[in-house]
Amino acid sequence: MSTPRFPKPLRSTFLGISVGLVLGVSISFAVTVYAAKDQDKIPLEQIQTFSQVFAIVKSNYVDPTSDKKLMDGAINGMVSALDPHSAYLSPKEFKEMQVLTDGKFGGLGIEVTGDHGVLKVVAPIDGTPAAKVGIKSGDLIVKIDGKALQGIGLQKTVDMMRGKPGTQVTLTILRPPQALPLHFTLTRAIIKVQSVRATMLAPGYGYIRISQFQENTGSATRKAVEHLEQEANGHLNGLILDLRNNPGGVLGAGVETADTFLNKGLIVYTKGRTADSDMRFSAHGPDYLHGAPMIVLINGGSASAAEIVTGALKDDHRALVMGQRSFGKGSVQTVMPLSNGGALKLTTALYYTPAGCSIQSQGIVPNIEVQPANARQRALNADLLNESELHGVLKAPDECSKATPQYTIALPVSATATTQSTQEDEAMAASAVLKPDLAKDYPLHEALAILEGKAVPVQEAKGQTVDTVIPPPKAVGQ
């Protein structure tokens, strides 16, 4: 039952570079050569203005500047003005991207995106240098090896973090609400991440952690389910799928993972301006869990392919989603090679969940929200951990923007927001190599309680907490 059910072309479809660029994570991308349409009108007036500016800069700028530098800068400016994920790749940068795909460089294992001249951390990857030193979702990288990043550009800042394995790099980070910057020294490494890990949380109840979506993640997830079922004497009573701090990855892997738990139904579809940008991906079955209840854990570091899986399982009524609203990276980037050896990474479509909701800048709203008891921490999470806060972000149709959680669970008041956040981070880091610590990981603890049919503390409209048994999810129409 563990053979892949998708053809190779689907598994190698490019899902952008998730959010910005994965430093040390294998990616896949489809390349197509595109020609300008003959019928497109050439904006002669704007081209004349550009020629004027070019000539003035060439003749009058204080330092002599090469034509190549000016033209590359103009192209970069044109593309980067579109959205945070489109980019022009010089021949050198395109070649480095292909090296990145092969995993033959030293990285940090950190997912970042550009925002107002600095780098925003979407998520560190389990077991990598970034995760080991304590880099967190929402951190703002303002300096690399003491050099300020303002005005450098996303691709060059990414290059500054890559390097020979074994060499070190120092990151200066702002982490609100802390007033003083933090300094982390990391040792670059070849990033080889085991994307799927599984264990039993309690008799009959399994746990699968997916740290990112690689080419083999779908098949690895199916094998993990089979292994857990064997440990449970052939039948699981429930499963928790942990996608917290999962920055995404390969589209086909996300589709295969969702299909692991579905018998039928739409998983995701895309819509763009051109006919070849419109795609639909559906489940083929069988459901490897045989309808057993599921809960998917997400947070603000869950992005891209992780949101596709979550949206499919939620909209197809296969799983309850629990945690915080996801990041909201729902755009498709296509890499188009250019005649000079470079490439254009261009946003060409948006992703939509089976219910027709755009993921872009909205994210996935959980059925069960787990929020800090501290109002200030809740406000910080809302500001730091979502795509909609990025400069120049694409805004999607807002048909589903008013979605709200059905239930809200607050973190224990006895623990400060900072302490609880640290405990949860530690628990997720430990899950990369060890059995998760239910005593420290409160969302995971409550998710297991829900699957077991136990009451959990739910906040009502007036603020009081009432112990409530939340009905476990049931597979509908599967």
Global structural class: alpha+beta
Query: Would you tell me which CATH topology of the largest domain applies?
Result: 2-enoyl-CoA Hydratase, Chain A, domain 1
CATH superfamily of the largest domain: 2-enoyl-CoA Hydratase, Chain A, domain 1
> What are the low-pLDDT stretches, counting only 5+ consecutive residues below 50?
1-35
What's the overall average pLDDT, rounded? 82
Shape: globular
Total strand segments: 23
Name the CATH architecture of the largest domain: Alpha-Beta Complex
Distance between the termini: 18 Å
> How can the largest sheet be summarized?
7 strands, antiparallel
Task: Bin the helical content.
Answer: 25-40%
Number of helices: 12
As a whole number of angstroms, the C-alpha radius of gyration is 23 Å
Total tally of structural domains: 2
Tell me the fraction of residues in β-strands, as a range: 15-25%
Output the CATH class name of the largest domain.
Answer: Alpha Beta
Domain PDZ: 96-162
Family: Belongs to the peptidase S41A family.
GO molecular function: endopeptidase activity; serine-type peptidase activity
InterPro entries: ClpP/crotonase-like_dom_sf (IPR029045), CtpA/B_N (IPR055210), PDZ (IPR001478), PDZ_6 (IPR041489), PDZ_sf (IPR036034), Peptidase_S41A (IPR004447), Tail-specific_protease (IPR005151)
